[in-house]
């Protein structure tokens, strides 16, 4: 028989898998047992919860170990045919994402100071890819203002099971503020209560329903002439915490004065509610020859401005006593 | 010459047979000891050169403006921190107007000493890691004329899906504007120009479309008629021969004229 060794190896793997399956069944039984034991016997509610969480984590680990050596699963994953409802494919996809794409994203986040400027801390656990029309955008890429005139299409892959609701926010943190001699922020898009699951990954922003989801419709990114480039960050924020899956009150959001476009801050939005940023993507925009047309069509006022460098100040000159030099 | 050594093993003899004084006459009369250390030159170091005026040029919480030198040094005793930079000779200078601050930042580097500039007197460095950066715009706005493009509706360049208006979060996007053509040209060109964004942000037709321009303009090339090919070949050769002869005669004439002028 050809590939004799391979067939033998498969038998070994199959045996290992059957052992793992037995272990899984055993673990499930144990979890069911400990769930029924009163908390007082286990040293309190907190201790019981910890024990159950640990057991559950081990069970998830076993599920992956049972399948991770299967050559058919490896092949299916590499062909892109993996079913993201199964833990093994989610595990493999997560591992692949963390190998390169997440590292690149983290580098961009630190290079472009997304973390101290927009959020105090960020640990992406979902893969976000972004594009306009047919053009895909790499994290941190400069995007022509004419390209980003139409709303982006997002692809968000989460690697943990279950449906959830997410908010999507596009923020510009580099709006020049001449009065304060500093930078302000602006919200270019805000949608809430968008359903997301490991299998349902595509979120085209222009297809979101206006009444149900959209707080602020898409405002094309633009930069003033002569101003430094604008960083536009796309945040995917999971609505969980104390009330997982609970939807946000969209009417209140629309009406509240805190949620105006100008001066909208992602920090404030995330702090006040049990929201957790799970994924992000970013691109940059600077003034180009198409910007004037884009802002005119979008109806943005006050863009007939050009920034130039301030004349560098000199140190206050201390006038010395004239008599000394006479 | 090496001085004679009484203690050298070759010369050690029993003391009773050979007392010390017997050997003394063999020693040289004038003995000079060579120097073990050079009295001149490199070994004694050149005299100290002029001082290089290194050190702090500005003290802590002193006002500086962009370009002011804060510290001169050999090597990096100090590193540039917030709103500061390092010059070619490791000089630390200010990049913003503010007040000088000397500090350590163990989270960035456990051992380095930094010099920074803060915008307001009394502000402290290092800034906590999760705090947004303090940034200064440092620009002045000036009114300008909007570009001519602002008034024109440019064609859709982003996506290739359909020409119908797209409802976009409350914003309506127009379909592509194509060159308005009269009925005659439209009849001539069955397919309209399909402009789009190409690699390298080129706004033009695709190569596929450019290749079929003639077809769209209904340019027709006459059919190839195969008549007497042998006769044609003979004619062609005759023409070529005539041409070469003409050229040869022309060059001969030129040469002749040159020779004449020389004579």
Verbal overview:
The complex is a heterodimer of chains A (326) and B (263). Chain A has helices spanning 4-36, 45-67, 71-78, 87-99, 101-111, 114-117, 250-255, 266-272, 291-298, and strands spanning 126-132, 135-137, 141-142, 153-158, 164-177, 182-196, 202-204, 214-216, 230-238, 276-285, 305-309. Chain A is α+β, with helices and mostly antiparallel strands and 326 residues long. The radius of gyration of chain A is 27 Å and the shape is elongated. Chain A starts with a helix and ends in a 17-residue tail after the last strand. The model of chain A has no long low-confidence stretch (mean pLDDT 92). Chain B has 263 residues and is α+β, with helices and mostly antiparallel strands. Helices cover 20% and strands 18% of the residues of chain B. Chain B has 5 helices and 13 strands. In chain B, the strands form 4 sheets. Chain B has a 4-stranded antiparallel β-sheet, with no helix packed on it. A 4-stranded mixed β-sheet of chain B has the order 2-7-8-4, with no helix packed on it. In chain B, strand 7 (98-104) and strand 8 form a beta hairpin. Chains A and B meet through helix 6, strand 6, helix 9 and strand 11 of A and strand 2, strand 9 and strand 10 of B. Strand 11 of chain A pairs antiparallel with strand 9 (139-143) of chain B, so a sheet runs across the interface.
Produce a short descriptive summary.
By secondary structure, chain A is α+β, with helices and mostly antiparallel strands. Chain A has helices at residues 4-36, 45-67, 71-78, 87-99, 101-111, 114-117, 250-255, 266-272, 291-298; strands spanning 126-132, 135-137, 141-142, 153-158, 164-177, 182-196, 202-204, 214-216, 230-238, 276-285, 305-309. In chain A, 32% of the residues are buried.
Task: Considering the chains and any ligands shown, give keywords for the structure.
heterodimer, A: 326 residues, alpha+beta, six-stranded mixed beta sheet, four-stranded antiparallel beta sheet, 11 strands, elongated, B: 263 residues, four-stranded mixed beta sheet, 13 strands, flat, ribosomal protein (chain B), Ribosomal_bL27 (chain B), Ribosomal_bL27_CS (chain B)
